Amino acid sequence: MAANWAERISAFSRRPSGFLSGTTAEAFLAELLRELRDDRATYSVKILLLSPLCEHPTLLCCSDSVGEETALELMSVFAQCPPKSVQFRCHLLLALTSVLICTSCVKSHSRASLDFLDVLLQIAQDTSDIHTDGSQRPLRAIACECLRELEACCPGLLSQRLELLGGLWQQETSRLHQAYAELYTLVLRNAIYQLTQETGAGAEHLKALLGGNTSAAWEADQESGLASSKDSAILSSLILGPMGTVPTLHTGPDCKELRSVLSTLLDESYLLTPLCQATLLHRLTEVVAMVPGVPPAIFRTHLLRLLGTSEVSLLHATLLLKCAFTDSLFSSEDEAFILKRLVVLSQHLLLSTPEKLFYMDCILHFPENRPISCGDGDETLPVLLTPQLASALVPTVFNDSATLLARFNMLSLVYLEEGEEGQGGQGLAYLYEHLSSLLSMVENGCGRELVVTFFRAAFLFLYYFCHVERYSNDLTKQLCQLYLNHTKLAPHFINLADQTQDRLSESSWSVGLLKALQRVITEAPLTQLTSHDLSRHLKMLARVAEEGEIIQQSTLTFLSSIITPSSSSLCTGGDWRLGNEILRVCRHLLVHPSLDSLLTPLADVLQLLVCHYADMEIQDHARLYYTLLTTLSREKLAGVLAQGMEEGGRQDKKQSLSCLIGEGLTSTLTIQQTERAVFRLIEAPPEPRAGDINSNEVQKGPEEASASMEAYRDQFSDSSFASEITLQYQLVHINSHDSHFDQLFSIRLHFSLTDHHYEELGDISVPCLLRERPSAIVQLTLKPRKPYPTSLHASAIFTSPDGHTWHTTLPDIHVAFQQTFLPLPVPSNWGRGGTLSVFEGLWDEICSESGDSAMSLFCCQLKEAALNTLVEKHFLPFLISDASHKEEFKVLFFLPPRSHILLKVSSEEDAVHFNIATDNWELLSHVNSYLLKITSL
Amino acid sequence: MTVRGLWIISHENGGNLSIRFSRRFSTVEHRAKSLAGSSYVAVPEESTFLQLLLTELGLSDSVDVPPDPRPPLASLLSVSQGLTLLAGLQTFLLGSGSKPDSEGLGSRLAMVSSVLLQVCPLGTPLDVPLPGTPTAPTSVGTQKQPAWKTGLHRGRAVVNVGLIETVRSMQYGNRSRQDLWDVYGTVTCKCEVEGVLPNVTVTLSLPPNGSPLQDILVHPCVTSLDSSILTASSVDNYDGSAFSGPYKFPFSPPLEPFRLCSYTSEVPVPPILGSYQLKEEENQLRVSVTLKLHESIKNSFEFCNAHLPFFNRDQMGVVDMKVSSGQLDVSKEKNLLVWVLGQKFPKSREVTMEGKINFSGPTPGPSDPLCTKLTAYVKLHFKVPDMTLSGCYVDQHSVQVYSSAKPRIVTSRELQSKEYYIWNSTGTAPVSSGQMMM
User: Fold this and answer.
1) Would an 8 Å CB–CB cutoff place B262 in contact with chain A?
2) Contact status, residue A888 vs residue A879, Cβ threshold 8 Å
3) Per CATH, which fold does A679-685+702-818 belong to?
4) Would an 8 Å CB–CB cutoff place A814 in contact with chain B?
């Protein structure tokens, strides 16, 4: 069983969602809890069982109440667990903390979380083992850590316990004092933050806070503490650089108590591990920043020790200290010293590469005493970083890639600032020499990592120094040579061209490079060309052909010479892939702005492909391009081909077969999705009803009431009788002016249901929808299983004038309850008498039956005139009684397939009464809301 | 100041990646979620993590500040703390050596979970994994025991202070390119001293006229520093008036050995000056090497070897070389000559190697992107006991221990080489700069 659990837990943590799809969260949780209670399971297995609760508590506890129950279960497991199983008890505390925090039980101060808090505080205070073996010490340490995490997630939770925690910290002499110190400083920091949010809070409040004096001064705070915990600012670091603002507490100069607490914490910080020291230092930085009454000089005695440290986190905390207090703690000499120190550390032999990279980043985000820029997160050079100082960080070929690029970037910034004269010029020369030596290493055939590093360095160089033509032109020349020798680097070249074009939009370097590459490719002798090289050349030429400014004649000459069997044998094999690469170049040329001058040679190339290329598909494809080229006007051609190219863009080109074949065609051959809805269906205004029951008064139905009922019932023997409702809609454009969709053709509407109350609907075709013409009428025939209100999803496929096929989604169609009403379906020759007798017959049946039938009464206040209007407006088609008979209106709604709603509406002295009878009680709630709606209008 | 998740991934030679350990911290995730609001990005599941790691991992990295606008790394204390935690875990898993043994790695991986319970139970790093388990007795007195001290020492007091200086060099034998060398020193201590917070002071001294120690970095257990100790820096222009010792380091030692401090120093000459010349002659290479030991260096090595690798050529065939001193080992498979100079240079303090190598072997030898054509180097490996280039030393009598029992004090020093290159002066040496950096 144990092995099985190990497997299952590891399967769970590998893919929690997948694991839970095979079972349910509740079942898995129940299993875990059962096993945790099982005495036969070993503690090592039980520790394993807790890990899903620690790592994914919200997956297992889907709601806060499940979290609460789980926590109560775990707490009872904890209570029953013998004290000597320290490890297991530690893990239990962690699991409880995770569950209670993540399910928001702590935030809502649930029963379990309050109990848990008490348990933790008890453990934290229990020092009874101190004179024995200290075996419970790990448990105390974990309890402190849990309390710290609770306070971190719910700031202010422990504010009231500040004095207690301070006492624990001061008394503890074992290594555990660290846990108490961390907990205490966090609670202190959060409590002071809360005070800053209080209007009128001052020195007295601060004093009360530290003294644990929970007098009246605190009452108000408790409430606001909880409120402000919603504010996420308290969760985040308060030291955010020169533009960050820190909330402050105005205490005046008298905060002796706080100052003494801070001094003790700082003096003892030496006893903490470097990581905890850094955290503590940062917390205290925040506290002092919030309380201007405490001078930052309180840190001064510790600065030398911190600045000399080899620990990255301690020095970092010191930099953040500088960021917070600038020249109120650090002189300009200090600043120069720290910067030099950072430069030294950025290249220090004994530090690891990540640490060195981090220090370089710190230089580029150096917290200056008087920053010039506003510190918006961009990399800037500190004023004090002279070229001489920075020269310690020049890149060398011995650097690893990340270091090399970081140094290259920094030195580029330095030399850019210096300008091209003097030192800057020398520095620039050095950087270029360095880039050249990287290039020669690539030339000599190095690994992929170096290749990538070179291209990144080249990009950085161009990014900063593209305007220095003697270098950028020379780089182009060197790159061309490199390309000829290493055509397999083509993707890197294309990427470099793309990136420089995107990032340096005002520079033409990228086009220059592509032009030069076109020249070397087309001028190189064909005899030495291998098919691999050719394929890469074609990729490059396709990219070159995207540039409107580049003349394409030489590309065409090249294409023609490689296809012509007499000049080259490369294409005689009829390789399909190669053919597609040639076609890709042609396709770009078909939309090139200088197409007019390319017409003949391009047609020749396509003709050559049609005649000589040994692959049928390539021939066909070339023939299509040829036809397009020779028959379509330029605008049309661009229309057919350009769309796919622009939409595909080179940023998100997908490597699908259809893209290889040509993006332009894909748009004409596939269905495209509109970005938003183009048209919608709106309810058509009701047509005037002809042949109303009222007009047929002269004719009569069966003589007797019972016969009427029978005849009426008989009609339903045909199951399709009166089973459908027909709704009229108008198909209209949605009012956005996308002229592209002004004229739409061959629209096919498709509907899908959102519930099971109706039969599936068939598709509906609409020949066209033109914006300037009246809207089309669409008849929607619904066949209810149950006549409830519903919504329908609708979508459509249509054709736009340019021949593209589109798929679009329409806004949902809402079918209201009253739209399912039909007049009583009686033979058209029946008069009022017949219908009336059916009404009475049904009414009597409903009164006497129980089953699905139901009676109800709806009352409302309505003036007589208002009632008449209401009947006129809503009930007229369904009115059974004579409209002039105003004492009582009899109304009957028939709802397919078989339901009836009968109303007797009469004005009584206090209100209008709607007596309702129906043979389908489930409709009553809908009737009620319908009546509410129409009577409240 | 928190970690959202931790993954230990092994990358085997074949390029196989696998997750060996993973731990995520749900409460930190909860905080990240409430801080990030709508821009929250969840940590991916373990099964998709590797692939995302290789392609793109766009997690916001912060639990300390709101993710928008994206804060610079330098403003997040979590970054440096994370670096420390990861480096600590790496040392714990792999040891300080370079190659991990798979068996030891497996057993240490199995311990990561319980290690995290101590150093990072809820995603906030508290410490790095300690080398030993804290089993030693702990304090019961009124003095607070440092959290970084795993226990108390009982027994004889011994203080061991070792000073190692490392010299690196790039010599080009070329007027247009300046030769480079630099020296750095580290002081390692092992202190077995009784008491919760014993005081020890180690003093580094320089001979008269010694150039000041620069770029001093100290261990966090050093209790205080004099500002003059930190002033000299290798990136400054030396003004001659700098403080030149003695350098006092008062500290309270942890139980395990630790690096008390490190420094760099500027020395006027490299300990061994070399020249290397290659000449390509039909099918063979003429080789000439001269090494000269500077007179100030004690001529008593623990070892001294010169390695001459040859890249991007066929395997060696006939090797016809003569050395004036020491012996020559030829490794034809590796295209490598190892010149073992032994413990002493001859009286003249100069040794030479001359001869020809013919690369006529049947298969190509090793390749290197840097060392093509005549770009080649000699790399020196040597160690000299009981001496430093800077002259820096720790006087046994200057080590002060404030404790009741008189401790035994052991001090030592040595000089070693690292990345000590002599480039062929007839080929293009790779670019380096006015200063020495590798």
Assistant:
1) yes
2) no
3) Immunoglobulin-like (2.60.40)
4) no
